[in-house]
Structures are given as structure tokens and as C-alpha cells.
Amino acid sequence: MSRGLGDVYKRQPHVKTLYLHLDNDGPGRLAAKAILAAIPEGYEVKNRPPPQGKDVNDFLCHRLGIPIRSAKGKELER
To answer: How far apart are CA 78 and CA 58, in angstroms?
Structure first.
């Protein structure tokens, strides 16, 4: 488990539900599985990848009708 995620338990003991909004690709799905496996009992984990696009930013752009652009400035297909 990542160090940052582990700190949540120490600093925020009242937190019992974790929402994952990881990338909607292979590495993002693998990371979600690893996190789900590492979370101790007593916590609820909700894995919520975006319904469209690679990540939450792509989904938000799609929802708002904003074209998604590559790092080179060219518009990408959704």
C-alpha cells in the first residue's frame, strides 16, 4: 500500500469509506486491485473509475463538451 494511503488511517481515524477514482486503463485497474487487497477490514472501498475516457479529467471534459487535447495541442478523439 502506498505511504500516502497508509497515512489516512493514522491521521483520519474517523474515515471508514475510501473512494478510488483511478485511471480507467490497465495500470489504474491493477492499482485499484492492489489497494483493495491491502485495505484492512473495517473499511469500505468504492472503486469508481470514470465511465468514459482514460481518467476523471477526460470524463469531465466529455461531459462539459470540452475537446480533449494531447500534450502537443492536437484534439484527440473521445
So the answer is: 8
Q: What is the pLDDT of residue 3?
A: 58
Say whether pLDDT at 35 is over 60: yes
Q: Give the C-alpha separation, 41 to 77, whole Å.
A: 41
Q: Could you tell me the three cell numbers for 74?
A: 492536437
Distances from the Cα of 58 to the Cα of 31, 38, 71, angstroms:
19, 28, 13
Instruction: Specify the pTM.
Output: 0.70
DSSP class per residue in 15-62: --EEEE---SSHHHHHHHHHHHHHSPTT-EEEE---SSSSSHHHHHHH
Residues 40-50 have a mean pLDDT of: 90
- CA 47, CA 29: separation in Å to the nearest integer? 9
Please choose, from the candidates 50, 51, 18, 52, the residue with its C-alpha nearest in 3D space to the C-alpha of residue 35: 18
